[in-house]
Structures are given as C-alpha cells and as structure tokens.
Amino acid sequence: MAYAVFLNASFLLVMCSFMIIHFHTPQTEVVVVTKISAFGSSNEQECESLASLDDFKAKCLYLKSNDPCAPQGYIDYLYLFYCQIGSYPSLGYTLLFLWLLILFYLLANTTSQYFCPSLESMSKLLRLSPTIAGVTLLSLGNGACDVFSSLVSFQGSGTRSIGFNTVLGGVSFVSCVVVGTVSIAVRQKRVQIDKSAFLRDVYSLLLVLFTLFGILIFGKINVLGAVAFTMMYAVYVAIAYVSSTRCDQGGDAAETGGVGCGNGLNLPLLVGVKKEAIDCEENGGEEYGLNEEKYCCCMRYLMCKVPLYVLEMPLYMPRRLTIPVVSEERWSKVYAVFSVILAPLLMSFLWSSTYNGNSFFSKNLIVYGIGLLVGSILGVTAYFTTKKVGPPKKFLFGWLAGGFVMSVTWSYIIAQELVGLLVSIGYICGISPSILGLTVMAWGNSIGDLMTNLTMALNGGPEGAQVAISGCYAAPIFNILIGLGLSLVTTTWSEYPQHVVIPTDPYLLETMVFLVVGLVWALLVLIKRDMKLDTVLGGGLLFLYFLSLFSRLIHTEGHSNSLIL
Length: 565
Known about the structure:
It comes from Vigna radiata var. radiata (Mung bean). The chain has 19 helices and 2 strands. By secondary structure, it is an all-alpha fold. The chain has a domain at about 330-390. It has a two-stranded antiparallel sheet. Helix 8 runs antiparallel to helix 18 (about 505-530) and helix 18 runs antiparallel to helix 19 (about 535-565). The longest helix is centred in the N-terminal third of the chain and has 38 residues, at about 90-125.
C-alpha cells in the first residue's frame, strides 16, 4: 500500500512538473507524438551522434531538425529532456527515474490485477487440466511483462537488440538469481524436488537455448523459421501433458500429494494474495462496525479515503473504466457498463494514432464513430443484462474475453512507453540500450517472480518449493519461445518474403553461454546431491549470474571507450 501511494504521489508530481515546465517554456512544439510506423523509422546511427554535441541547446536544435530517435511510445522524452528541462538536468533525471518506476508499477499491476485474473477465470471456465493450465496460462501470467516488452521492442529496427537482451536477461535472472535465492532460503528444510520434472524442464530449456543460439549465429530468419521456432512450445506442452498423464496413471501424484512429476503447477495464478488487506477499501469500511477496534479501523479508513483516492485515481481510473472485471470480489455494475462503453473508444483512439494519415476527417472520424456506436450498443446491453449484486452468469466468456483483450491492450501500451523511455535514457546517459534491457528492464519484469517464488517456497512447504522451482524453468521456456517467437513472427511477416536480419551482438552470445553454464551447474549439483536444494546450488548460481553481469558491463564499457577514442 505504501509503495502504491508513493508511486501515485510520484505520478502527480511528474505530471505537475511537466505541465509547469511546458507552460513556462517558449517552445510551442508538441511533446506528445503519435505512434510512428514500425519499421525503418528509427535511425540508430544518427541518434548515437547526439552524444557528441556539446550542450543541451545544440542537442535541442538537433532534435528539432531530425525525426525522434526513440519512436516507441507517445512521448518524445529526448525533446522533453533537452528542450524543455535542459536548464535543470537534475530535475530531468529525477522525473525520468520516477516515471520509470511508475511504468514498471503499472505494467506489473495491470498484469496482476487484470490480466492474471482473466486468465485464471478462463482456465476454470474452459476446464483446462492442471498441467495444461500450468504450462500455458500460468506461464503466460508470469511472463506477460517480458512478452509485451519483447513485442514492442521488435517494432523498431534499431531496438530489436533490446528485445533479445530483455528476454534473455529475464531468463538468466530467473534461472540463476531466483533459483539461487530460493535454494538458499530453504536450505535448512532439506527440500527434495522431483527429478523427472526438473530434467524435463531443464533439458527443454537447453534445447531452446541451443536453437536460439543457432538463429543468432546464422544471422537471419524468415517466416517459416520463426513459426517453427514458436511451435516448439506446443511440443513442450505436449511432452508436459504426456509425462503428467503417465505420472497420474502410475500413482506417483497420489503418493506425493501432487508434487511428483511436476504436477505441482495446479495452483492459482494469484498465489498468496490476502483479501483481508483490501477488505476495508473494497467494502468502504461497512463491515467494521461490530467492535471498537474495527470501528477505529473504519474511522482511519474514512480519514484517509479522500487523499488516497486523489492519489490513486490518475493511475487506477483509466484502466478500471476500460477493462471489464467480472470477479466476485471486484464486481461493480457501474464500472462494468462504463468499461464496455469506453473500451471500443480506446481501441479507436489507438487505431487512429497508429495509422494516422492525411485524411484524418475522412477515415479517423469514421473509426471514432464506429467505436462510439459499438460502445453504446454494448453499454445498453450490459446495463439491462447485469445486476448490482454480482457478475453475470450468462455470456461470461464474452466478458472474460473482453477483459483479456483490454488488459493485453493496456499492457502493450505501457510496455511500449517503457521501451521508449529506456531507449531515451540510454541516449541521455550514454548507456547502451541493450544493457538497459539486460539489466533494468529484465530486473523490473522479473522482480515479481523473485518475490512470488520466494514466498511460495518459504510458506508452501515442499509442494510450494516444487512449484517455485518448476516455474523458474517453465516460464523462461515460454518467454523465449512465445515472447521472442511471436516477435520474430510479426517482424518476418511484415517484411515477407524477405529475411529479417538478426542484430549482431557478440555479448548476447556470451550471456547465453553463462546461462547454459548455470543450467549445467544446476543439473550436476542437484543430481549429485539427491535433488535437494542447498547453499551449494544457490551460491554457485548467484556467482555465475553476477560474473556474467560484471563481464558484460566491462566489455560494454571497453567498447564505449574505444568508440570515443
């Protein structure tokens, strides 16, 4: 709660600062820009020459005479920093840092509060088996941030290296830091994980990494190759399903309480969420009038209600009013009706800003009209077919599908802005965007996995530790094959029948080598030590990760110095 309040306050501070700076500067150019076409719109070489200019005035003039260097997103951060906050660089760095935290929070919060509940409800509605739900919907829920970030980064030809580094940086963080931390945390419990599930996941991840290594070495890929690479995940799902079925038939799952054969993935997407923490806010404190202690709690709630709502609304309301939510705990007919009305309008705005051309009043106005018409029809239908007491029972799949689509839309918007901000920070600070993807982006997307898996391992007993370790190897497979795979499919499809050239990055191959060494280390140590998690495994993985990161930073610094000389 305190972290959310801090971020909401930071959001208001950033917005107020931007408005004050904007209205007190003589420049009249518009800061917020429409989405630029995907391919060929970024000239990385021209943007790199920005660092050679002397002061912020020269850089501002350079930006005014050239296309934006970071096309992703709706805000031109370089113009903001050099042309409107150029006289106050410390303020500029502070605002960009706060905005970076806000975007990370929004991406994670959208995934956990809207995206994952939709997936969980759809899994129950479709009656998916625990194994299929675990390796598909659970992995999608855990890896959504990486997938969206990868898809966005591949929309610009000069930022594709960010996509590779973000995904592989997240895989390295999860398979080394998260597994290492969990192993050290449960070392005294002598937890023994299932061997068959571990070998299946690690061997599958090694095969995926070797395939990706071949693609990077070859240097180019076409549509068929990208589709084949993505379809490897279907093969992994089939193998997981067959192995789980054989395990259940053999009776192992019954003997081990579901831990054996990796069947411990039968857990909800939102693990360990405590409803009590939000009861007072969700119910308006109505249920706390039974005794003095609860009465005081309610009074404190009422005293904090107005300022908290003021801080929360800028980040909460836009998503709540456009993403349909049909869960029992968060159902509201008012929000539901507004969400189905405003969601088509938001989609119309995004379509218009993406494909905006010269004939605005002829085409885009029609798009807005269609969005308004569809939203009005859906709003009237929702008003007369829903009740205040609970979510609808009929047409539930349509509501869930709408929530899924809009949560994906918001996640994509936020990831798009996040990638654009990271690229701009790279140019401003003289840091390679690929390094920011390997570190900042990967850490921001994976820190939730660390907290969730660590909590699960500490509080869930042997089964919780099994699920945590299984997720640390199943989720990276999903992130690589689906995150990078779909990114390659969309990129190759847009440039069909030509091949897509993969950016040459020898340091990326080095990261993959360290990643493979970490997997081999986990294999050898666990098999040698009877599949028990301990300090040897965890310490070795943490050492390899920080050694890999240190080596990458040293090489990048040396490369930057050679360019300067």
